[in-house]
Amino acid sequence: MKKRDILENQAKIVYLGIGSNLGDRKKNIEIAKSHLSENNLDFLSLSSFYETPSWPNPQNPKFLNIVIKAKFNFDPETLLKTCKNIEISLGREKGKKNDPRVCDIDIIDFNKKILKIKNKLTLPHKMMHKRNFVLIPFFEIQKNWHHPIIKKDLKTLISLLPQADIRSIKQI
């Protein structure tokens, strides 16, 4: 039992996507990063900032997004709870799906784990392979990552995006 406890507390490699399209977007992301760091995430790499139109309604304010690679010593549910608490502390309110928001933190990958907790968490993130604002910053910091379910690397996943998605993202 002791050996299992030690293994469970070893650092795992996690990738998070952080986005904001309300208020001072860059400041919101910087505050979220600070809170993540205070909550046992040890950053290894950070992407540049990327700006994209809101989806599905491009009339909403544009999003600013980054991807972070970090070490984390606890389980995926603990990380999810931490992310949700940070979103709330930054002023995120429960709204309709895809509404504008001050902060959105998604777990993209958790130590290459494949996991589904109904209505709570899917790993890797169930839509990450279709999102330019995840794939392109993710590729910037981790070119050799492979999707454990789809079995494709990031470069291939990016090449499968619609051309309009590739043209609409801008590195800041």
Structural commentary:
By secondary structure, the protein is an alpha+beta fold. The protein has a single domain (2-171), classed as 7,8-Dihydro-6-hydroxymethylpterin-pyrophosphokinase HPPK (Alpha-Beta Plaits). The protein contains 6 helices and 8 strands. It has helices spanning 2-8, 25-38, 76-89, 132-141, 154-159, 163-168; strands at 12-20, 42-46, 50-52, 63-72, 104-110, 115-117, 121-123, 170-171. The strands form 2 sheets. Strands 1, 2, 3, 4, 5 and 8 form a 6-stranded antiparallel sheet that branches. Strands 6-7 form a two-stranded antiparallel sheet.
Uncertain residue ranges: 1-6
Rg, nearest Å: 16 Å
Specify the number of helices: 6
Q: What is the 3D shape?
A: globular
CATH topology: Alpha-Beta Plaits
- The CATH architecture name reads 2-Layer Sandwich
How many strands, what sense, and barrel or not for the largest sheet?
6 strands, antiparallel
Average pLDDT taken over every residue: 93
Strand content: 15-25%
Secondary-structure-based class equals alpha+beta
Highest CATH level, the class: Alpha Beta
End-to-end separation in angstroms reads 49 Å
Fraction of residues in H or I helices: 25-40%
Total number of β-strand segments?
A: 8
Q: Please, how many domains?
A: 1
The name of the CATH superfamily reads: 7,8-Dihydro-6-hydroxymethylpterin-pyrophosphokinase HPPK
Element order: H for helix, E for strand: HEHEEEHEEEHHHE
